[in-house]
């Protein structure tokens, strides 16, 4: 259907259309763990915005059982060096 979305105080009329999602990305990360931070290296080069990559990294390490993480305080991502630093609210 049709929707009106407020973007930066401007109204944009949008229409919802179904689409097929492409196959997800699967990749391997190399990490170094400390008490409160995880250094991630060899982050794959994906054609997505840096903000999306930060979100993906945060979600991966927020999943306590699957990623061995916890509540994330900050994610610093450097696309050029393909590295990231995940900082948690609590050491563990």
Characteristic terms for this protein:
NMI protein, Nmi/IFP35_dom, 92 residues, four-stranded antiparallel sheet, alpha+beta, Nucleotide-bd_a/b_plait_sf, two-stranded antiparallel ribbon
Structural overview:
- The structure is a single chain.
- The chain is an alpha+beta fold and 92 residues long.
- It has a domain at 37-88.
- 18% of the residues lie in helices and 37% in strands.
- It has two helices and six strands, in the order ββββααββ.
- The protein has helices at residues 50-62, 64-67, and strands spanning 2-7, 10-15, 30-33, 37-41, 72-78, 83-88.
- The strands form two sheets. A four-stranded antiparallel β-sheet has the order 3-4-6-5, covered by helices on one side.
- A hairpin with a 4-residue loop joins β5 and β6 (83-88).
- InterPro entries: Nmi/IFP35_dom (IPR009909), Nucleotide-bd_a/b_plait_sf (IPR012677).
Please provide a brief summary of the model.
With 92 residues, the protein is of the alpha+beta class.
The fraction of residues assigned to DSSP E strands is 35-45%
Q: What letter string, H or E per element, gives the SSE order?
A: EEEEHHEE
Order of strands across the biggest sheet? 3-4-6-5
Binned, the helix content reads 10-25%
Protein name: NMI protein
InterPro entries: Nmi/IFP35_dom, Nucleotide-bd_a/b_plait_sf
């Amino acid at each position: 259907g049709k929707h009106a979305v407020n973007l930066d105080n401007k109204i944009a009329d949008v229409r919802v259309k179904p689409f097929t999602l492409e196959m997800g990305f699967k990749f391997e990360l190399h990490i170094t763990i400390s008490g409160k931070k995880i250094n991630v290296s060899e982050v794959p080069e994906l054609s997505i915005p840096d903000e999306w990559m930060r979100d993906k990294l945060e979600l991966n390490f927020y999943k306590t059982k699957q990623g061995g993480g916890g509540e994330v305080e900050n994610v610093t991502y450097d696309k050029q060096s393909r590295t990231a630093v995940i900082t948690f609210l609590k050491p563990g």
